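Duplicate of #3305? Posting structure anyway:
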């Protein structure tokens, strides 16, 4: 009953946003700044987005280039045009979230031609945590956590395949390097998930200044850290993972 009531209470707010978007698309403006959040899945991108949107002057497109919204490699120009359409008068900044694998190499080259975009590169220093979080999300089908849902997770311990673990870690690492090289010389701010979680006020202040937002309210962010437990508690074959990473550049991830 409570859940249904909450949904009912949110209807006017959602309807208002739909109406505002429709009106803005007709009589709105295009004099807004544009930015993209770039990274890998499970690096805190939703937490980052929610914080940015707390400013009230931002319109965010979620994963509009992802394979659940299109066939990868198709309709790039049509989709990117959404970030140039008219928006309501309160909107001063329009952003989009793009994961490394959402675009083909050709499409990344096309994105480079849009030099009006500011770029936020979000990374997670512990890439084993990234992989573990992804496996848990795939298992539980829970991709975000709010105070009301965080204690209602399904069983979330996972087994990590150690035969390709280092390859997966290195793939993420290489995509990070490629992104830094691809946008070298551009207006890019790199944000580490770990810093965003442990010191949100300071990190969001940097983000606010970088994007030129009037304010950000970290306390208004509804998302919470989804898997705060230690890796030993989350990975059922932790000893195998430990053996696979010991003596490699990634053994610090185990701590």
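Output from current build:
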């Amino acid at each position: 009953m409570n859940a249904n009531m909450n949904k009912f209470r949110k209807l006017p707010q959602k309807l208002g946003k739909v109406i505002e978007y429709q009106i803005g698309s007709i009589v709105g403006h295009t004099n807004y700044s544009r930015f993209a959040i770039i990274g890998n899945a499970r690096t805190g991108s939703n937490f980052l987005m929610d914080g940015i949107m707390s400013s009230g002057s931002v319109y965010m497109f979620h994963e509009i280039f992802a394979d659940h919204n299109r066939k990868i490699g198709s309709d790039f120009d049509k989709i990117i045009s959404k970030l140039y359409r008219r928006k309501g008068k309160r909107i001063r900044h329009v952003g989009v979230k793009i994961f490394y694998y959402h675009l083909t190499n050709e499409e990344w080259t096309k994105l480079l031609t849009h030099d009006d975009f500011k770029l936020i590169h979000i990374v997670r220093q512990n890439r084993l945590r990234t992989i573990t979080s992804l496996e848990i999300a795939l298992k539980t089908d829970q991709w975000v956590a709010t105070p009301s849902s965080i204690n209602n997770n399904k069983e979330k311990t996972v087994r990590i395949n150690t035969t390709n673990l280092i390859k997966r870690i290195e793939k993420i690492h290489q995509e990070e390097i490629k992104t830094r090289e691809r946008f070298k010389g551009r207006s890019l701010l790199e944000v580490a998930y770990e810093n965003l979680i442990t010191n949100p006020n300071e990190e969001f202040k940097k983000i606010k200044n970088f994007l030129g937002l009037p304010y950000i309210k970290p306390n208004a962010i509804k998302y919470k850290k989804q898997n705060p437990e230690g890796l030993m508690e989350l990975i059922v074959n932790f000893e195998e993972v430990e053996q696979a990473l010991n003596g490699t550049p990634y053994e610090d991830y185990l701590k």
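Confirmed duplicate; merging threads. The beta strands are 33-39, 58-61, 93-99, 117-123, 188-192. The domain at 25-254 is CATH 3.40.50.300 (Rossmann fold).
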